[in-house]
Amino acid sequence: MFNALVLEQHEKQTLAKITSLDDDLLPEGNVTVNVDFSSLNYKDGLAITGKGKIVRQFPMVPGIDFAGTVADSQHPDYQPGDKVVLTGWGVGEAHWGGMAEKARVNGDWLVPLPEGLTAQQAMMVGTAGFTAMLCVQALIDGGVKPEDGPVLVTGASGGVGSVAVTLLHALGYRVNAVTGRLEANQAWLKQLGADEVLPRESFSAPGRPLDKQQWAGAIDTVGSQMLANVLSQIQYGGTVAACGLAGGFDLPATVMPFILRNVRLQGVDSVSCPKAQRQAAWQSLTKLLPASYFEQACHTIALAQTPEYADKIIQGEVKGRVVIEIAHQD
């Protein structure tokens, strides 16, 4: 038996409850992992609260990422005792996820725990930090260099945004961070490495198709009108890495930034990212994240607190990363 946070649907309402389950109920997979830590991402919040169409079948154990120790393996790359990390691949959406004492998955979805990180630190990074690293790499691949000018990060107080600010600062970029809670988050974002902190309202209203060129590049986690405004302010030849839709999945923009300023809009997906790229991103994260990040940008909760924090993350009341410690039964 193992404990898990289980989502059920009753009369179109999603209900979340910690339940004791038999091991025989674990889904198909060739690796079983004793989960030590998971984390709470915005997508997890949507799934747990039922405010987004994330979960494809019920009952579901949420948790789109986890870190733990292999308990049993029929996969050639893993043996019992190996430390592993999982992010993406539809886990917590279509396949039972990490908010449980045990998880059974396809071993191809796993990567070894990066050397130099504990399981808890890996979840302090988690899907959000992994996605942030892919976004930073997209800017680098797009030719955005620190000397080209400031880089904008929207949704900077969230999981992806806060790691992106930290990584960009570590690489020598001048970072402008956008947040909806300026008074509450300004000092914290500057501790992470933001040079300037800007209010969300500056980017929320419909703007001109082409605005003043201000940013060498940008990482956008919001979408919708904010992304449209960001695109209109990118310098000639700049790149925007888009990875989120917290503000909506529409894009009320024009082609003008692309055809008149040679702007690149690069979509970033972390769910189905190939294994080699995953491992490279994790290695970069291990090298770039300072020790202070783990102290400033993260806090840890118990599994029982997850539904409460899921509601908070949807309301924009959570800053940084939330790690879930999975307390195993004796």
UniProtKB/TrEMBL annotation:
<feature type="domain" description="Enoyl reductase (ER)">
    <location>
        <begin position="13"/>
        <end position="324"/>
    </location>
</feature>
<dbReference type="InterPro" id="IPR013149">
    <property type="entry name" value="ADH-like_C"/>
</dbReference>
<protein>
    <submittedName>
        <fullName>Oxidoreductase</fullName>
    </submittedName>
</protein>
<dbReference type="Pfam" id="PF08240">
    <property type="entry name" value="ADH_N"/>
</dbReference>
<dbReference type="InterPro" id="IPR014188">
    <property type="entry name" value="Acrylyl-CoA_reductase_AcuI"/>
</dbReference>
<dbReference type="InterPro" id="IPR051397">
    <property type="entry name" value="Zn-ADH-like_protein"/>
</dbReference>
<dbReference type="InterPro" id="IPR020843">
    <property type="entry name" value="ER"/>
</dbReference>
<dbReference type="Pfam" id="PF00107">
    <property type="entry name" value="ADH_zinc_N"/>
</dbReference>
<dbReference type="InterPro" id="IPR013154">
    <property type="entry name" value="ADH-like_N"/>
</dbReference>
<dbReference type="InterPro" id="IPR036291">
    <property type="entry name" value="NAD(P)-bd_dom_sf"/>
</dbReference>
<dbReference type="InterPro" id="IPR011032">
    <property type="entry name" value="GroES-like_sf"/>
</dbReference>
